[in-house]
Structures are given as structure tokens and as C-alpha cells.
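User: Okay, second chain of the day. Same drill as before: sequence in, C-alpha cells out.
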Amino acid sequence: MGRAIAPLRDAAAVQSTRWALWRALNQMLPTHIASGGRTKWNRTRCGLPKSHTLDALNVGKLDTVTETITPILVAGCSGRGQHQRTSPDRHGFPRRTSPRIKTVHGYTTGDLVTASVPKGKYTGTHTGRVMIRTTGRFDIRTPHGLAAGIRHTNIRLLQRGDGYTYTHQPEPTCA
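Assistant: Same drill. C-alpha cells below.
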């Protein structure tokens, strides 16, 4: 019998914490609260499809939605490299050491770049995240694959790497 009561106690603890948090915030700033039913009512009244981003737009007090943006910007975590100085083999012994420097010819791994390659295996224009090499020949990861060994003189910086990868996607709809 004690097992069935524990989830109810957990739910009660979450609810009481939620209301205490709202009261504390409401003393500092004027805040409004609403239910999921209010969000659905706003969404159907404005004639919008169900999606996470449009639900975030329809939360709380709302007169009308005059404009939505599509495609949406999606940010994903990509990191800023690794701190590991050596790469071990399968037995744990050092296989190779990583260079101490993080920047080569003004570029850092993770920067968004565009490369215009005049000749060779990867002839053409490639836009993506760069992986630096101390040799000056970099790899560029694009949505279409990997362009390897691109000379640093053929590369132009678009955006410094900030630990995130940005993509545009059409507005997803929930079932």
C-alpha cells in the first residue's frame, strides 16, 4: 500500500514547489500563469497547427498571432573540442598526442567557414564546420559529407565557433 502513495507525494511536492516559486517570482515581477488548456484554446483560436515552438508562442494571455516564422532555427550542442592531450589505443597506451595550440592560421576547430576549392578532388564551394590541422590543410564537415585536406588559403571565416551548431528546419508538427 505504501508504494501507491509515494507517486502522489512526489506529485504533491512538485505542485507545492511550483506554487511557491510562482509566489516568489510574482513578488519581484508581475507574472501570469495559465494552463495547457489555455495554450490549446489560444492555438485553435489563432488557427495554428500543434508544434512545440507554436505552443510556446501561444502560452498565457494572448490577443492574436499575426506572424509565424518558418523555417525555425535549431541550435544543437557541438562542444568546443577536447582537453585530452593523448589518444589511447585499445590497451590504454598513448597512441598520439594532440597539439598544444588551439588556433592554426586564425581558425579554430568548430568555426563556420566557406571554402572555394579551385582544383582537386574537392573542387567547388563547401560551407560547414572546420577541423583544424597543424599542417594548414583543414577538414570541413558539411551537411553533404566531409571535404578533407582543404588549404587554409582557400577558406574564409563566416562565424567563430561558440560550441553550438545552427541549422534551419521546417516547423515540425506534433501528432
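The chain has a mean pLDDT of 87.

User: Thanks, on to the next one.
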